[in-house]
Amino acid sequence: MDEHVIGLDVGGTGARGLLADLNGTPLARARRDRDSGGDGTGGGGGTGGDVLVRLVEDLLAAAGVTRAEAVVLGSTGASGLGETPRATLPGLLGAAAGAGEVLFVSDALISYIGALGLAGGAVIAAGTGAVAVGSDGRGTWRKVDGWGHLLGDDGGGAWIGRAGLAAALRHHDGRPDGSPALLAALNRRFGGPAELIADVYTRADRATLLARFVPDVAAAAADGDPVAAAVLDRAGEHLAETAMAALPPGAPRVVSHAGSLIPGVARVADAFSRRLAEAGVEAAEPRGAAVDGAVLLAAAMLGGGLPPGLPESGLILGGWRERVVPGA
Question: Is 277 found in the same domain as 129?
Answer without folding.
Answer: yes
